[in-house]
Structures are given as structure tokens and as C-alpha cells.
């Protein structure tokens, strides 16, 4: 017969063994290693991947003590289309990535307020700080099925084209120009151009085949798209405001984020938000300097429109804004409030 003492020892041993197993499991969970696959749709040598995405991934790894590794896949290497990035993240096909909501026209209409003509300054960092503030008020519900890490804008938008630079509004007439968003293509149409909407990866081929005569895009994207070879001139508007801009989010799959232990969630959270958004925008500013220098070194013409001609474009831009407000009203949204709050976000963040 088993003695009470023997039974107690066995029971105690079993309890200690179970406790040790739990401790090991807890330790394993605490030391959980996670690999996150983030995808984007441009060259790894372009500004945002170079000056934001790669440093952000390195910081996540460092801050997590090596427990989170972020792998970056450029040029849609994991599959899918640039226009479907949001759904790829939401559905878990990828763990995270870079999204241009405007690539799905009408799906995220409130984001378009930040993209309206002459809405933001030519500083990507300032524009991105404003984008994060605006996003908190208007877009977090729309993006509720992903984890938004940053909401940002690029730097100044430039007209790049074959042939000489734009000197007057009349020079836009008849040009086939690539536009990245509804608001940008509306403005190009007002200017007398034939706007052709397309994502950035399609732009170089469209130029080389003569599908377009040029398009609007940033300085920083120019080298990776070989615009020094495919175009001859680059024209900016006068003043501190950008001709157009584009709204982006850097986001991850919500279930993947929710599945992280709390201390690793804290690492993601600490590298998200206002600061991360400004960092992403600053990456574009850094790239703009490099891109402009590369275009100048190629011998291409760099130009800036006069104040008078810029004022004419601003008047047309105001028409685009008024029409956009009317569109939002028809959708049951308060377009006037969105424009007002977008402008306020730009003003407030500039003053900080």
C-alpha cells in the first residue's frame, strides 16, 4: 500500500513538474520570435524604403531585442497588385505593407481631403504630421480592420514630361499626363491635359511606349523610375504649397498584431503614430534632394512656374475642391468640414 508520505511526495513532484512546465512555456512565450513580412510596390532604392522602411524595420528589431524581425519585399515580390495592397494586408496574405488608399478610387473618400490641390506644404514631414492628425479624426474607423502604423504624405509634386518645361497653363493643353489619384487627375483635366490614372510601377513603361507624355510625381521617385532618361523637363509651382500630394498608410494585419504578446505590441506601438508618420514624410524630403540633384546632373531642364501662372492653377484647384465637397455631400459626408479640418491640421502641425 502506498503511504500517505509517498503519495504526498509524488503529488508535490507532479505539482512542481507542472509548475516548471508552465514556467518554461511562459519563458518561451516571453521570448517569442516573430518574422513579419512587409511588402511595397517600388524599388528598394527609392526614398521611403531607404530612409523610412528599412530604418523602421531595424528599429523594431532592436527595440524588441531581436524578437521581431521585419522582412521587406519590394516591387510586390510577394504577389498581388499595388492597387490591392490594403486587401492583401487585411486578409493576411502579407503581414504588413505600404498602401495608397487612392489607388482604389471612392473606397476611402475621406482620405482625399489631404490630397486636394495646394492643401499641404511642400515639406513631406509637415504634410505627414498633418495627415496623422487628420487621420485620427476621420479615417481610423475606415481602417479598423488593419493596424495603422503611420499615415503620411510625400514631398512636393512635380510635373515631369518629355520636351521642354511647362511655362504657362496653356502648355498643359493636350498633354497625356499620368495622375496617381482622383483629385490629381481632376486638376490635370481642368488644366487642359488628358489625365491617365495609373499606379507608379506602370509609369516608366507608359512613358517609354508613348502612352503618356509625362506625369506628376515626386523628385525622389525620379531616379528609380529613370525619369532622367525618359523625360526632359521637370516643373514645380511657385509658393510653399504643393501642386498635389498623395496619402499613404504603413499598416499591418490586425490579427497578426493582436496575436503578439503585450510587450511586442508595445514595441510596434512605440514606433507608430505621429512620430512615425513624420519620419516617413521626412524620408521623402531627403529623397527629394537626391532626386532633384540627379535630374539636374542629367542635363534635364528644371523650372518653376511664375507666381501669376501658379495663381491661375490655384483658381482651377479651388474648382476641384468645390466639386469634391459637392461629391462628398452627395455621399452624405461633410466635405466642407473635412476640408476645413485638413487645413487646420496643416496649420497646427506647421506651428509645432
TrEMBL record:
- Transmembrane ranges? none
Its annotated compartments are: Periplasm
The GO annotation for biological process reads:
transmembrane transport
Write down the superkingdom of origin.
Answer: Bacteria
Q: Which organism is it from?
A: Aliiroseovarius pelagivivens
Does Translocase count among this protein's keywords?
Answer: no
One matching Pfam family: DctP
Could you tell me what this protein is called? Solute-binding protein
Keywords in UniProt for this one? Periplasm, Signal
Q: Which InterPro entries match?
A: DctP_fam (IPR018389), TRAP_DctP_sf (IPR038404)
- From the UniProt annotation, give the residues forming the signal peptide: 1-31
What's in the GO CC field? Answer: periplasmic space
Amino acid at each position: 500500500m502506498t503511504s500517505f508520505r509517498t503519495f504526498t511526495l509524488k503529488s508535490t513532484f507532479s505539482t512542481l513538474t507542472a509548475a516548471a512546465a508552465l514556467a518554461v512555456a511562459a519563458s518561451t512565450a516571453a521570448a517569442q520570435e516573430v518574422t513579419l513580412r512587409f511588402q511595397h510596390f517600388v524599388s528598394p532604392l527609392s526614398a521611403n524604403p531607404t530612409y523610412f522602411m528599412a530604418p523602421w524595420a531595424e528599429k523594431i528589431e532592436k527595440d524588441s531585442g531581436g524578437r521581431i524581425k521585419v522582412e521587406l519585399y519590394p516591387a510586390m515580390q510577394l504577389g498581388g497588385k499595388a492597387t490591392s495592397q490594403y486587401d492583401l494586408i487585411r486578409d493576411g496574405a502579407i503581414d504588413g505593407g505600404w498602401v495608397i488608399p487612392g489607388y482604389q478610387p471612392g473606397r476611402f473618400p475621406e482620405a482625399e481631403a489631404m490630397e486636394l490641390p495646394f492643401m499641404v506644404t511642400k515639406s513631406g514631414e509637415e504634410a505627414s504630421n498633418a495627415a496623422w492628425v487628420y487621420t485620427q479624426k476621420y479615417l481610423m474607423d475606415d481602417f479598423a480592420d488593419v493596424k495603422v502604423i503611420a499615415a503620411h504624405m510625400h514631398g512636393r509634386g512635380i510635373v515631369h514630361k518629355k520636351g521642354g518645361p511647362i511655362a504657362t497653363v496653356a502648355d498643359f493643353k493636350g498633354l497625356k499626363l499620368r495622375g496617381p489619384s482622383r483629385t490629381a487627375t481632376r486638376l490635370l483635366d481642368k488644366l487642359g491635359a488628358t489625365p491617365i490614372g495609373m499606379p507608379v510601377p506602370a509609369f516608366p513603361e507608359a512613358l517609354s511606349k508613348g502612352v503618356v507624355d509625362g506625369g506628376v510625381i515626386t523628385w525622389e521617385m525620379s531616379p528609380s523610375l529613370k525619369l532622367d532618361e525618359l523625360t526632359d523637363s521637370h516643373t514645380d509651382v511657385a509658393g510653399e504649397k504643393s501642386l498635389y500630394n498623395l496619402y499613404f498608410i504603413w499598416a499591418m494585419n490586425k490579427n497578426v498584431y493582436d496575436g503578439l504578446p503585450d510587450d511586442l505590441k508595445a514595441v510596434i506601438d512605440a514606433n507608430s503614430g505621429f512620430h512615425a508618420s513624420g519620419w516617413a514624410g521626412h524620408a521623402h524630403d531627403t529623397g527629394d534632394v537626391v532626386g532633384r540633384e540627379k535630374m539636374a546632373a542629367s542635363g534635364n531642364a528644371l523650372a518653376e512656374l511664375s507666381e501669376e501662372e501658379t495663381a491661375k492653377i490655384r483658381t482651377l484647384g479651388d474648382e476641384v475642391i468645390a466639386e469634391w465637397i459637392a461629391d462628398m455631400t452627395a455621399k452624405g459626408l461633410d466635405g466642407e468640414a473635412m476640408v476645413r479640418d485638413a487645413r487646420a491640421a496643416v496649420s497646427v502641425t506647421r506651428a509645432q
